[in-house]
Structures are given as C-alpha cells and as structure tokens.
Design a protein that fits this description.
Layout: H1 2-24, H2 31-54, H3 59-83, H4 90-112
Length: 113
C-alpha cells in the first residue's frame, strides 16, 4: 500500500511542480488542472493514512503523513484563492509544495529503507 501511495503522490507532485512553474511565470492554466492535482494528492494522502493506521510504520513514513497533512491544509488555502479567481500568494505555494516535497522524500526513504 505504501508503494501505491508513493506512486500516486509522485504523480501529484509532478502536477504540482507544473502548476507552480506556471504560476511563477504568470502563465494561465485551466482550473481543472489544479483540481485534478488536488484530487490525486488527496487520494495519495488517504492511501498513506490507511497504510499508517493499519500497520505500524517507521518514523520517516509517519513524518511524511504529518507533512502531507500540512500540505493538504496549504492546498485548501490555495484552492480558496482559485475559487475567487485570484492567484494564490507565491509564498503559500512554496510552503505547500515544500511540505509536500519533503514529505515525498521522507516517504521514499521510509519505503526504500
């Protein structure tokens, strides 16, 4: 289950990096791309949570779940801006993405180790 969560979250990360680059370059992108990114990311976090709560996991995997949970909160904050047809603040996009990428790295360490 951890490998599936890792794969789903990696796909969400690729979409997130694409969205962040578009935001920084001030290039418009369809809102549906952001919604898909959020849905895939949330599905990955749910899969990770199921794996963590079903079986005992090591500290890297548990820490990854914590960081992904914080990233979900940041993503919801960014979504609120999108729903108002405004770009989210760049610092919030960086915090959201940073938490998710560090979580992804910790999950990779936890799964691989």
């Amino acid at each position: 289950m951890l490998w599936i969560a890792l794969a789903v979250l990696a796909v969400a990360a690729i979409g997130g990096v694409t969205l962040a680059v578009a935001l920084v370059r001030q290039r418009p992108f369809p809102a549906s791309v952001g919604y898909i990114h959020g849905a895939v990311g949330l599905a990955g976090v749910v899969l990770l949570a199921i794996a963590v709560f079903a079986h005992s996991q090591g500290m890297p995997v548990n820490s990854a779940l914590l960081l992904f949970s914080l990233a979900v909160v940041g993503g919801a904050f960014n979504l609120l801006f999108r729903l108002q047809r405004e770009p989210p603040p760049v610092f919030m996009v960086i915090l959201h993405g940073g938490a998710a990428l560090v979580g992804l790295a910790l999950l990779l360490i936890g799964v691989g180790g």
